[in-house]
Amino acid sequence: MMKLTKLLLPLCLIASFAWADGVRIKDLGRLSGWRENALVGYGLVTGLAGTGDSQANKATRQSIANVLSQFGVNLPPTDVMSRNVAVVIVNASLPAYARSGDKLDVTVTSLGDARSLVGGSLLLTPLKGANSRVYALAQGALSVGGYKYDLNGNVVQKNHPTVGSVPGGATVEQSVKADLVDQENRLTFVLSDPDFTTASRVATAINSAMGRQLAQARDASAVEIDLPTTPGARLVELITRIERLTVEPDTRARVVINERTGTLVAGGDVRIAKVSISHGELKVSIVTDNSVSQPLLVRQTGPNVRTEVVANSRIDVSEGAGSYLGASGNTVADLVQALTRIKTSTRDIISILRAVKAAGALHAELVVQ
Question: What DSSP string describes 146-180?
Fold first, then answer.
């Protein structure tokens, strides 16, 4: 169970997290070898309403000629009209343990100078992995979610019409199997957030549940698990038991600030050493009043008699009373509460925390976004 305590401030958030019942090991990381594989392909989108690649795109005309040659139509690329066709790059992710016949979502992006892919259909495109082997075939009608129309220099556009998708448009042709067990008959559990304490707790929880020493924390990010050699031991059942175990993860104290949006997020238990904070405000205002000076005698004439514009400027300097705050053994949440009571703005709170960190009184990692 996760308890979340929030202190809501104007554009400021202080969050305190407490892990009461622990977190499943399954939610703390993954098994080494369990990963997705990137696939990429080069294809053509046809059926566009004059919004495809222009005649200046030689790759499009050459690709169309190559496709037509497979059906016995031989034309030189110079004789091919390509305004209703666009060359595209097709991307997809092949999950671990993908089986032949599984469907994958694909993303289609324009490679040439097409204005829009709305209404287009992707021709059969082989998708290759990093080893240049074909793992899936993609085709189907595009879902763009945008449009672009132009006439006589007027353009109406919504979203990005040169990027589309084909949900379930790729079919896996070659199965993929993840290698979870290494040559030494071990499993390796990799933490998403490396931490020595958490890795040690994961290993201890596994050994306690199994009743023997099977797991050992190799470093801050990996826990090695020796597979039992007893007859009848099943890998899937063992992994299931391990993933359902719960541990209390240990996290490093962090304070995340974003000055662009005025956002501050910190753990409520982040400690602050003894520190004194003095915060004042100085305002300088420069005001210019322009007035017109007329000659006293209206009928007076001469080379030096004319209307004159006079600028009267004044400078006002006001210094606020400022504020003084002494903190001893408090947390970031306590400090922010005290600063909010004296009506300190969020951006000033961010500046104060950066100064506290520079003074060495903030015992946390300061992350500036």
Answer: -EEEEETTEEEEES-TTEEEEEEEEEE-S------
- The pLDDT tens digits for 192-203 are 888 899 999 999
Strand partners, 310: 291
pLDDT above 80: residue 269: no
The three-state secondary structure class of 73 is coil
Q: Which overall architecture, per CATH, does domain 23-34+181-247 show?
A: Alpha-Beta Complex (3.90)
DSSP 348: H
pLDDT value for 13: 43
Positive or negative: CA dihedral 301, 302, 307, 308: negative
Q: What whole-number distance in Å separates Cα of residue 135 and Cα of residue 98?
A: 10
Residue with tokens 């031991």: 233
**For strand 154-158 and strand 103-110, is the pairing parallel, antiparallel, or unpaired?**
unpaired
CA dihedral in degrees (322, 327, 332, 336; nearest 10)?
-30
Report which of 175, 41, 165, 169 is spatially closest to residue 103, judged by C-alpha positions: 169
Domain ranges of the chain: 1-21+250-287+312-369, 23-34+181-247, 37-172
In the chain, what percentage of residues exceed pLDDT 70? 76
